[in-house]
């Protein structure tokens, strides 16, 4: 089988993205990796860290202004977007089998006047995909999210029966097509403590979530829930499940990152392209120090390569 070529975007230049990308110089294996970023930036960071840069394939995309590790500059926000757009174009053309993204800083991108909620939402908009799902994998878990980067006060209104059905359909389909699981079993968390406790602690489970799951079961999708989120992630409940759906960001990802922070992988489900990512942020305080752990990036590349080489 032909070795898949993956584009790795180096992310926020002042963060640890360039640092961890240097670890891919020794990646080897069955995957070709091309790092998208400013060549001089990456070579300078390699010298600063005393790490080799030879063997690392770099697709040179120039910074807008010079970069200092740990110091954000909104002038480089368009550069960060350039990386994503170039990787996306290569995925569409067949140049790349998929893209792997190092972390970006949402705040500085928005400070530059570029509306940006996150990689997931940006790639959905650029590909014209009406619905995508964020899922993180690691530590034996595959945690998908019904909502992503929303203030907590906006979450209940965002969870609607039809939208929830669409999310679960995407999760089930991509577990079949990307992960090769013939009939995935998905556990679904409730929104409220104790899954609403029969309506005493909230009625979203009764009025929104349960009807969505009933309809999905009628379609032949194996869903269990709504389950109390505080016990869903216990060993006995998880047994035999293939994925878990949380209602909001921290409900699911706090557990995932506790279980697999240094090896977790973010994968965007529902896109017409393959995209995985690290599960951590830019860690500005670690940039240029040599203390950044590349484990999540290695895991993201490995998962993308596995999916690209073995489509279901």
Could you please describe the fold and organization of this structure?
The chain is an alpha/beta fold and 312 residues long. It is 38% helix and 17% strand. The protein contains twelve helices and eleven strands. Helix 7 (161-177) packs across helix 8. The mean pLDDT is 94.
For this structure, what is the CATH class of the largest domain? Answer: Alpha Beta
- The Cα radius of gyration reads 20 Å
Order of helices and strands: EHEHEHEHHEEHHEHEHHEHEEH
Number of helices: 12
Helix content: 25-40%
Task: Please identify which CATH superfamily of the largest domain we are dealing with.
Answer: Isopropylmalate Dehydrogenase
Under the CATH scheme, the architecture of the largest domain is: 3-Layer(aba) Sandwich
Shape: globular
Q: Give the tally of structural domains.
A: 2
Provide the CATH topology of the largest domain: Isopropylmalate Dehydrogenase
Mean pLDDT: 94
Cross-sheet strand order for the largest sheet: 3-2-1-4-11-10-5-6-9-7-8
Strand portion, in percent? 15-25%
In terms of per-residue confidence, which ranges show pLDDT below 50 for 5 or more consecutive residues? none
Distance between the termini: 15 Å
């Amino acid at each position: 089988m032909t070795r898949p070529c993956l584009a790795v975007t180096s992310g926020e230049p002042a963060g640890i993205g360039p640092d961890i990308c240097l670890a891919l110089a020794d990646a080897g294996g069955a995957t070709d990796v091309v790092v998208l970023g400013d060549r001089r930036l990456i070579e300078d960071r390699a010298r600063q860290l005393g790490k080799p840069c030879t063997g690392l394939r770099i697709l040179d995309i120039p910074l807008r202004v010079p970069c200092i590790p740990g110091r954000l500059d909104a002038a480089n926000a368009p550069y960060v977007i350039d990386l994503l757009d170039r990787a996306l174009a290569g995925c569409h053309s067949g140049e790349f089998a998929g893209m792997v993204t190092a972390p970006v800083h949402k705040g500085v991108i928005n400070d530059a006047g570029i509306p940006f909620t996150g990689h997931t939402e940006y790639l959905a908009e650029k590909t014209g995909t009406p619905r995508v799902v964020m899922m993180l994998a690691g530590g034996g878990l595959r945690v998908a999210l019904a909502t992503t980067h929303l203030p907590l006060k906006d979450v209940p209104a965002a969870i609607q029966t039809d939208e929830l059905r669409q999310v679960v359909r995407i999760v089930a389909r991509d577990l079949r097509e990307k992960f090769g699981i013939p009939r995935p079993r998905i556990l679904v968390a409730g929104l409220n403590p104790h899954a609403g406790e029969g309506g005493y602690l909230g009625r979203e489970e009764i009025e929104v979530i349960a009807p969505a799951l009933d309809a999905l079961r009628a379609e032949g999708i194996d869903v269990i829930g709504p389950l109390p989120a505080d016990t869903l992630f216990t060993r006995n409940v998880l047994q035999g499940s293939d994925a878990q759906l949380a209602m909001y960001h921290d409900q699911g990802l706090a557990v995932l990152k506790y279980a697999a922070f240094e090896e977790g992988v973010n994968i965007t489900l529902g896109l017409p392209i393959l995209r995985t990512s690290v599960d951590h942020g830019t860690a500005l305080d670690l940039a240029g120090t040599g203390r950044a752990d590349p484990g999540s990036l290695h895991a993201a590349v490995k998962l993308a390569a596995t999916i690209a080489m073995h489509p279901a």
